[in-house]
Design goal:
4-stranded antiparallel sheet; alpha/beta; TIM Barrel; about 40% helix
Length: about 425
């Protein structure tokens, strides 16, 4: 058993290059929070978290200033650490089971929101969970990511991709020339945000019209480009609605438009089209629909699969590594494909995500692993953040022709994620 004797926490506010738009809102900064744990044996570990209030509960983002929303989530992280002090655990999964219910209830109280989304609490716990995994590895003498992961999850993480496609994000404000530039640079699998609120009046019909015009422009610009990384040689489309579509009928109109312009057959995935309480069957839409925010935990994944969802977006950097392992186990047993999505995290957390993405089965029709990463597009100080990585500028951190190349050093060194970052340790 590992006993937590001391705790610590801090944060840095990282400004963005431009307002980052999705779910009808815009973020202007992302707080990087740090959770520190020290065991009774004097072993220390530090875990990182990139907070995303807008993603984890858009209602909290809407009714508070951006700084206030971030303060609420950081207060939940601090609460979790205080609860963790003096607790003992066998594995980090046990610690998460002990902390999550109390942290969620605390979050409901301080936000004044009795229906606070579970994802908000999980986002607050990412750094605590990451620190627990590093502490767990050090206490047990585990030298690698593979050694650290409990045996029951080994079937889920049995692949070894030596190429993983980097998925950039095309948010509402990204100009068309930037999308084309990414394709010219070799990126072939891009995540496109749909569900804009162009006049900020909540009008879903205007949203649909905006989305159709946006996809028409994208398809006209890059629809005929080719890539060696897909089975059909075409650029795949990955549309993320973040729950903005209010009905299956409206989504069908969007898909009918995609058919009309010849883009439908290139849709690899439509992610989280509906609000999570809209539980329509989606297995008859003719496209692979993925669950993201609505798949808070392993039980939610079971429900989504029953509703016809054909893929699960994994987010170790948003829902904790512990919960992601449980989610992935359910999807794996149901033979439902998975992929790793981003939360606009920094370079160290990109490698936590990449470590997972390098070990799961590829998406149907894609010849390589995939991992979304858009921090380089959005952080004003991205190069500075890269310098905080304990293996800064290692070969596996670079994108070439749209892919990360993962050599033996990536796997042998566990992408550097089990090593200390001097910057965050000092923080």
């Amino acid at each position: 058993m590992i006993t937590i004797q001391n705790i610590s926490a801090n944060f840095e506010r990282e400004p963005l290059i431009r307002p980052f738009g999705f779910k009808g809102g815009y973020m202007r900064e992302i707080w990087q929070t740090v959770a520190g744990l020290e065991s009774a044996n004097g072993i220390r570990a530090v875990g990182l978290n990139s907070q995303s209030i807008l993603w984890s509960d858009a209602d909290v983002f809407a009714v508070h200033t951006e700084s206030a929303g971030n303060s609420l989530m950081f207060a939940m992280t601090e609460f979790a650490l205080q609860r963790a002090k003096g607790k003992s655990f066998e594995t980090p999964l046990d610690l998460l089971d002990q902390l999550l219910p109390d942290v969620w209830e605390y979050g409901k109280r301080i936000t004044g929101k009795p229906d606070l989304r579970l994802t908000f609490a999980l986002n607050a716990l990412v750094g605590v969970d990451a620190a627990a995994w590093i502490l767990y590895a050090r206490e047990n003498g585990f030298k690698s990511f593979d050694e650290m992961i409990p045996e029951r999850f080994h079937p889920v993480l049995s692949y070894r991709h030596h190429q993983v496609a980097a998925i950039p994000l095309m948010a509402y404000a990204i100009p068309m020339e930037e999308i084309v530039r990414h394709v010219n640079e070799g990126y072939f699998f891009m995540k496109v945000k749909i569900g804009s609120d162009p006049d900020h009046d909540g009008d879903r019909e205007k949203m649909l019209q905006w989305d159709m015009q946006r996809i028409s422009a994208i398809h006209e610009a890059i629809g005929n480009r080719t890539t060696p990384y897909t089975e059909n040689g075409k650029i795949p489309y990955y549309f993320d609605a973040n729950g903005r579509y209010d009905s299956k009928e409206r989504l069908q109109r969007f898909l009918d438009h995609c058919k009309k312009i010849g883009a439908f057959d290139q849709i690899a995935v439509v992610e989280e089209p509906f609000p999570e309480n809209y539980k329509a069957y989606v297995g008859d839409l003719g496209v692979r629909v993925a669950a993201d925010e609505s798949a808070h935990c392993d039980n939610d994944v079971k429900e989504r699969i029953e509703l016809g969802y054909g893929a699960i977006a994994l987010k170790p950097i948003a829902k904790t590594l512990s919960m992601t392992l449980k989610i992935a186990e359910v999807a794996h047993k149901a033979h439902v494909p998975m992929f790793c999505a981003d939360l606009t995290v920094g370079p160290i957390q990109v490698d936590w995500n990449k470590s997972f993405a390098a070990r799961i089965a590829p998406l149907p029709g894609i010849k390589v692993g995939v991992v979304e990463t858009n921090g380089h597009q959005n952080y004003k100080r991205w190069e500075t953040l890269c310098g905080y990585h304990p293996r800064a500028h290692a070969p596996w951190t670079k994108v070439t022709n749209g892919c990360f190349t993962l050599g033996d050093d990536f796997f042998n060194e566990s992408a550097g994620i089990l090593q200390d970052s001097e910057h965050y340790l000092n923080l």
